[in-house]
């Protein structure tokens, strides 16, 4: 933020600029990619491109998403991660074709998530990670098509059982939340054998600070894991020039 608390002046997006940012995905979808453009306000001109299938406004400085976003009725994929958004509009519930919604790394609170999210009956992936949620929205229990949910790095102290009862849920990330006991999250995951932890954002889609934080956490985990499972050091035979009898039993591996 600029000195004096003023919001920095962002890049102005014109209709021509937006049109030039439309890409065709490998599966033939139209994606409007306005990521990393220094945008501070939602560009109204893109409402004239509402026939796109995917919209990427990630890694900008956007603070508010207007109700008019519901005009993107063809949208299947919406990426808003790494902005300053603290509230989603109620009209987002009208975007019933959405399959993927990423609002990771914003300023969202539980109160900033509208109940209309329960109208996204086709949604398969939701990423709420790196926000300020202190409870899991009850609306998630109505989303029966959910496959993946990211709730990592929030302020959660419990996970409702209704989340575990989602019939198609396969991947859930609830890491780094202030649960009263560390084993609580582990017990919750263990109770649903089909689940596994994951990061829903690929490295290429993360901003610098987020990527660094995730890499540090991953490196720490790998270090602990390697210490626990380190194999015994095998003796080296520097003068051995032919495979021993055990190696001969698996010639393909030896070669």
UniProtKB/TrEMBL annotation:
The keyword Cytoplasm is annotated on this UniProt entry: yes
Species in which this protein is naturally found: Orycteropus afer afer
InterPro entries: Leu-rich_rpt, Leu-rich_rpt_typical-subtyp, LRR_dom_sf, LRR_domain-containing, LRR_R13L4/SHOC2-like
Principal subcellular localization: cytoplasm
Function noted in UniProt: May be involved in the regulation of spermatogenesis and sperm maturation.
Regions that span the bilayer: none
Subcellular locations according to the entry: Cytoplasm
Protein's name in the database: Leucine-rich repeat-containing protein 18
GO cellular component: cytoplasm
Entry keyword annotation includes DNA repair: no
Domain Disease resistance R13L4/SHOC-2-like LRR: 70-201
Keywords: Cytoplasm, Leucine-rich repeat, Repeat
Cross-referenced Pfam families: LRR_14
PROSITE patterns: LRR
